[in-house]
Design a protein that fits this description.
The complex is a heterodimer of chains A (607) and B (281). Chain A is α/β, with parallel strands linked by helices and 607 residues long. Chain A contains 23 helices and 22 strands. In chain A, the strands form five sheets. A six-stranded mixed sheet of chain A has the order 6-7-8-3-9-10, with helices on both faces. Helix content of chain B is 68%, strand content 3%. In chain B, a hairpin with a 2-residue loop joins strand 1 and strand 2. The chains are: A alpha/beta (607), B mainly alpha (281).
Chain lengths: 607, 281
Amino acid sequence: MSEDFIIKCENVKFTYAGSGRPAINGVDFFVKRGEFVSVIGHNGSGKSTLARLLNGLLDADEGKITVLDMDVSDGKNVLEIRKHVGVVFQNPDNQTVASIVEDDIAFGPENIGVEREEIGRRIDWALSAVGMDDYRTATPARLSGGQKQRIAVAGVLAIKPDVLILDESTAMLDPKGRREVIEVVKKLNKEEGMTIILITHFMEEALLADRTIVMNKGEIALEGAPDRIFESGETLETFNLSLPRISVISNNLRSAGMEIKDVLRPEELAAEILKNFNNRGIYEGQSNKNTNKDICRSKEWDIDISNLTYTYSKKSPFAAKALNGIDLHISEGEFFGIIGHTGSGKSTLIQHLNALIKLPQAEKKYRKKRVKKGMTAPIEPHISVGQFDLSNKKCDFKALRAAVGMVFQYPEYQLFAESVFADVAFGLKNFNKKLSSEEIEQAVKSSIEIVGLDYEEVKDKSPFDLSGGQKRRVAIAGVIVTKPHVLILDEPAAGLDPKGKNEIMELLHKLHREWCKTVIIVSHDMDEVADNCTKAAVISKGEVFACGTPAEIFKRADELTALGLDIPLTSKIAAELKKHNVIIESDCTIEDFSKKVAEVFEGAENA
Amino acid sequence: MLNDVTFGQFYPAQSFVHRLDPRLKLLALIAIIVLLFVADNFYSLFAVALVIIAAIAASRVLFKSVLRSVKGILFILVFTAVLNLFFHTGEILLCEWWIFHIYLESIIFTVFFVLRLFFLVMASSILTLTTTPVSLTDGIESLLKPLKYIKFPVHELALIMSIALRFIPTLIDETNRIISAQKARGADFESGNIFKRIKAIVPILIPLLISAFRRADELGDAMDARCYSGSKNRTKYKKLKFGVRDLVAFLIFAALIAGVVLLNIYCEQIFPEIYQYIKIR
């Protein structure tokens, strides 16, 4: 029956102008009304192109696409099709046209000529559907990423589409924002019966759908119910996709001899583990404690922060306190994680570390305030990095910035030079004007090589001709070229697909071993912190909420959740097991956790 | 109302003037500017000034923030004042040095001229202090509407303004981020001569331009996806309302304007003996 399918693609092919390889190569794709389909695939697998073909933003070269029995290739239908197929894109900043939320949501209905009163009703409905009723007159620029993206969803909903396509709409959001958007999407599918096509590279999100499609090199590689898809673990990896973390744990446990069914939720996995234990007669148990490996080190490059307070736009009606008395010590040699959601003050904190934001005492105009009689002098903030005293006006800030490298979020957006070589050399030449051209070439060469690029191949290329992942590597090379002792990275893996994420993390570990003494990453991905960091600090509302090893921090799971932060998957499962008197104390990495569970399991066998 | 402020001078407060129809405020500003240039004597000038001061009082804006906007044109003010003082001619010569002559008339004229500019800037700053950029755009669009009949793209112009306003905070954030990133790589924007400084801007400008084009591209797609197809068959959700408050303001304002005009015509008869010193030729 044809009316069963709301979208039909038959043998669709599409090649971008100037590209030799087809982006979509013979795709057959059918979506039923009310279905929730997730599409996964690595960067460049053609999944975003597919979204653009479905509502006529791109025209297919071959094949036939019909939406509600209308042919997309017929120009007359395009506007009508766009009324029925709404798309939410990746970057929440680049989808709003107006400075006030309600004006922006009105944009779509205005375009299709909806009456004024009806537009008002649609705004009400769309805002309540995304749970943003209170933000009708707010300014999008002042909202969080998740809120902005929900406004973008509302803007599409106001057109009352039948199909909602989310084109990597969660890729740029923090976990909290991601949860918010996904909740909205789930609700729309369940309650409004809306057809959803969710394009994502977060495996955990793909699991929520009725059906998952795996794209690889412009073709549909796999298709089926999500749990069936993730059973085919090795095949997924050949498509440059990673398994969901939960499947990795299941696999590890299976190879340790446990019988674990493939499940998708931490509670279910905990139940599977318990079933195995119970079959062996284990009703309670405890893993061995980890002995803390204390890294022996010199204290030469320790970072000390005390009493750091910072207020944005002081003395204006918009003053906002970003930091509120931060005390933090980061020892040399750590792979340190700074955790917190957007707006917690973590970016402000790291910008202090290389004096991009100077302490008030270090400002040229600073005069010590006279203390009135009977009042205690206010405690002044203090930061030191190695031998640099950042509260001293005479501190050599240039040398400090050479010693403390800072990689910002989406560093590829700061590239500017005509060649990769010139861009990487930029920092080096700024910091040390006396270097000979051989020395510069040597330094640039080694830093391009350590980030995993071929020096001869890329040095003369324009950085803008590189792929996204390569650009990010060039940008990192441009920072580490001065051989900084401390390297700080703000969300180094943001916006990458799972494979790209792993590669960047591997690169950071390599840099930590061979290049920089201390690496600090800012992250809101708890699994990332658990897997990679030796120590971490949780920043919330401008204060240090907790500081310690990941194991110590994630023990306080309940408090973290109350702060709106996530906890790593391993901690979730451990918490579930603890309810049944099985205590697993791991360092929160997947490997250690699986090992500890297996030890308890085998312990019973040996006993 | 903190919510819908994006940038600019807007001073958040709840006042009579804040809530007026932006079209009325725009027209009032134009009227004041015209009056300032029509006024040819100090009586009329101060009458207009009274209107401005009354508006400041009614808008609950800090007088300080109004003065701050005058600071912006201080240089132009001083520069033109000096030129006028030395090169304006008259009959009563006060002093003379080399090619410079200072006449009584030139002093009067200079004072008059400076006050006129001063009041002009004050009046426009009341508009920007009490009106959000968004409602200002709405007002301009509504006022330009008649131009549609001569095929002037009013809707497109308004959309361009609205998108520009929407992206200013985003691009400011972006600029700050790029500046920080390049500073972290040792870029120096604060020292060196003018050529060095201009050269130092390149690493900011290029990424910013590239990003602006990327954003424009993505925004275009998003607008297409939301059924944008120009102004044809388009409805408008927001309508500006000309309410009772606006009518009251309009009447008060009209009375004041009439007063100034009358003063302009008849002031010669009020104090003829003073008038000969303060009139502007």
